[in-house]
Amino acid sequence: MRDLPAAVKVLAALAVVAVALPLVALAARAPWSDIGRLGASGPRTALIVSFEVSLAAAALALVFGVPVALVLARARFPGRSIVRSLALLPLVLPPVVAGVGLLAAFGRRGVLGRGLAAIGIRLPFTTAGAILASAFVATPLLILTVEAGVRALDRRKEDAAETLGASRWYVLRRVTLPALAPQIVAGLVVAWARALGEFGATITFAGNIRGRTQTLPLAVFEAMQSDPGAAILMSLMLVALSLVALVALRGRFLAR
Amino acid sequence: MSLRADVRCVAADFVVEASIEAERGRPLALVGPNGAGKTTLVRVLAGLAPIERGTVALDGMVLDDDTTHVPPRDRSAGVVFQDRVLFDTMSAIENVAFGLRARGMRAGEARERARDLLRSMDLEHRANARPAELSGGEAQRVAIARALAHEPALLLLDEPLSSLDVRARTDVRALLVKVLATFSGIAIVVTHDPVDALTLADDMVVLERGRVSQKGTVDDIRRAPRSEYAAELVGINLFTGRLEPMGDGAARLQTDAGAIVVSCPAELDSAVEDVTALLRPVDVVLYPEQPSEASARNVIHGTIRSIADDGQRARIRIEASPPLIADVTSGSVSRLGLKEGGAVWASFKAVEVRLVLPS
Question: Would you write out chain B's pLDDT as a tens digit for each of its 359 residues?
Fold first, then answer.
C-alpha cells in the first residue's frame, strides 16, 4: 500500500490521544485508596440497577429489533423507507427528546399512559420505564446490524430449505436465524452497551430514583456534585464494562 | 407417470418459453449454453420462480397454472443446486436429515435414515463435519443425499458436476449414475457437459435463448442434432466398454461395436468395466485408401454414411467398428474423393482419446 501523507497520520495520532487522554486522566485522578467504596451500598445498588435495566433493554431490542430488521430487509410495501427512517430515528434523536416523547406517550396524562394507568400499569419513574427508555434508544443499533446481515444472506439457502419441505417458520428457525447468529450477537452487544450508557432519555422519563431507576451513569452525574472521587471510581467501572463489550465483539463488528 | 411443463416465464433479462416432458425412470438432460434459461426452468419446476403463463403438472396434478401455485414445500421435489448451497450452520448429517425433520419426522429416526444414506455414499465418517470442512466431492454427495432423503417424486440436479475438479467429478458422476439407475421418480439433470448428458440421461432437451431447439432421446439427438449447439454438444465420439492394459503404455477399449487403442492410465493394472472414452471429431484423420505407414495406433476401415457440409467444415459419419464421426475441411471432401456410401479409412492417435474411468 502507498504510504499515507504525514498530515493524515498526525491528525489520526491526535484523535487517538484525544480519546485516550480522558481515560488515562480518570485512572490518574482516581482515589485508588478509596476503591473499597465501590462496594458501598450506593454504587453497588446503581450497578445492580444498571445491569437489570441494560440487560432487559437488550432483550427487548432483540425481541423487537430482529423482526423489524427482517421486515426492512425483505418485505416490499409502500412507505417502507418512511418506516425505516422511523425505526432508526432514535439513533440521531437527542435522548432527552426521546424521554419527553415517552412521557407524552406513556406519562400519566399521556396518549397511552391514561389507558395503561386505568389497568394499573405505570411506566414513568419506574424500573420498567427506565428499561423502556433504554430499549428505545438502543434498538436501532441492533436493527442496523441485523438488517445488514439479512441483506448479505444467500437466499438460495432459504430456497433450498423450502424445497425440502420446510414451513416459513421452520426456515426462519433452522436456517435464517442461525445464519444471522453473528450479527444478532453483535447487535445485542452494541445495544446492551448503548443501554448501559443511557442517560438523557432515562432521567427524563424514569427520573433518578435510587434503587429503582438510578443507573450508574445517573449515579455518576449525581456524585459529581457531592463526591467527585466516587464519581471517578464509578466512571472507571463503566469504562471496564465498555471494554468487556468491545472484547465480546472482537473481530465481529467493530474491529476489522 | 410423468412431468409435463409448458411454461412462459421471465428471468432477469430474458423470456423463457419452453415445453418439456419427463418420464419416470428415464432421466432427462436439460442442456444448453450459458444464459439459455436452464436454471430459471429448474426454479420454476421447483416452485421457486413464478410462471407468467402455462402449466406445470406432475403425475397429472397441477403444480402451476393461471390460478394455482403449489409452494415449493408441498411439491415433493429434491433440488441439488449449483454450488450445492448446503446449510453451513449444520453438520453433514443434519443437512441430510433436514428434509425429514422439516416434514415432522422425529429427530432420532431422521438421523438414522440420514446416516444410512450417507453410508450408501461412503460418507458416514464425515457425518459430523461442517460443510466448510468437506471437500468439493464430499459436499456434492451431501447435497445429493439431502435432496434424496425425503424420497422426492421429482429430482432436479442443476449442474451437479460443474463446480468439481476432474477427479471429484468422475467420482460423483459414477455415484449419480448409480443413484439415477435406482431412482424411481422423475429426474432432470441440467448440464452443459456432453459427457454428463450422455452418461446420466436417456432423454434430452436442448434449450437455447429461452426456447427448446430440440428434444428427443439422447440417441435421436446424437444421430441428428438440429442446431449448431446440439451438434457441437453431441458431435463427439463416445465409446464405452471394458478397458484392458496391453503393455507399452497402451490399453484396449473393447466396446460392443468394436475395439480401439488408447493410452493406458498409469494406475491401471487390470481390466476395468464401464470405461467411457471421448474423441473429438477433428482428431480423426481420413484416407481414401489404407494408409501405408500411419503412426496412429487406430486405423479403422468403414463406409461413409453421411456428409454434412456447411461450406467450411464437413462432418462425416462413418459406419465402422466402432462407428466414428470425423470433421474435415470442406475442401478435403473433394480432394479425398469422399462420398456417401463410399469406403474410407479413419485413423486417430491413442493419446487423442480422453478416458473417463469409473470411480
Answer: 799 999 999 877 789 999 999 999 999 999 998 888 999 999 999 999 999 999 999 998 999 999 999 999 999 999 999 889 999 999 999 999 999 999 999 999 999 999 999 999 999 999 999 999 999 999 999 999 999 999 999 999 999 998 898 788 888 988 999 999 999 999 999 998 777 888 899 999 999 999 999 999 988 887 777 887 887 777 788 888 899 998 888 999 999 889 999 988 877 888 888 888 888 888 899 998 888 766 788 999 999 998 888 888 888 999 999 999 999 998 899 899 898 999 999 999 988 888 877 76
**Would A95 be classed as within a structural domain?**
yes
DSSP string, B238-276: EEEEEEEEEETTEEEEEETTEEEEEEPPTT--S-EEEEE
Smallest CA-to-CA distance from B50 within B80, B72, B29, B78 is with B72
Name beta bridge partners: B258.
Answer: B255
Q: Output phi, psi for B323, to 5 deg.
A: -60, 150
Residues 167-206 on B with a CB inside 8 Å of A are none
Residues of A in contact with B89 (CB under 8 A): 175, 178-179, 181
Q: Which domains does chain B have, with CATH numbers?
A: 2-234 (3.40.50.300), 237-356 (2.40.50.100)
CA distance A73 to A169: 17
d(CA A211, CA B278): 83
Determine, for residues B87 and A160 on separate chains, whether the beta-carbon distance falls below 8 Å. yes
> What is the ipTM score, two decimals?
0.81
Cα distance between the two ends of chain B: 32
Task: Answer whether the bond into residue B322 is a cis peptide, omega within 30°.
Answer: yes
Residue A155 lies in a domain: yes
Q: What is the CATH number of the domain that holds A193?
A: 1.10.3720.10
Tally of structural domains, chain A: 1
Instruction: Return the sign of the alpha-carbon dihedral for residues A168, A173, A174, A178.
Output: positive
A215 contacts A130 by C-beta, under 8 angstroms: yes
Q: Are A40 and A249 in contact (CB under 8 A)?
A: no
DSSP E strands: which ranges in A97-254?
none
Nearest-by-CA chain A residue for B86:
A157
User: What is the maximum alpha-carbon separation in chain B?
Assistant: 74
Which residues on chain B are in Cβ contact (under 8 Å) with A175? 87, 89
Q: Phi first, then psi: give them for residue B158, nearest 5 degrees.
A: -95, 105
Q: Whole domain around residue A233: which residue ranges?
A: 31-252
DSSP state, residue B205: E
- Let me know if residue A23 belongs to a domain: no
d(CA A179, CA A173) in angstroms, rounded, equals 10
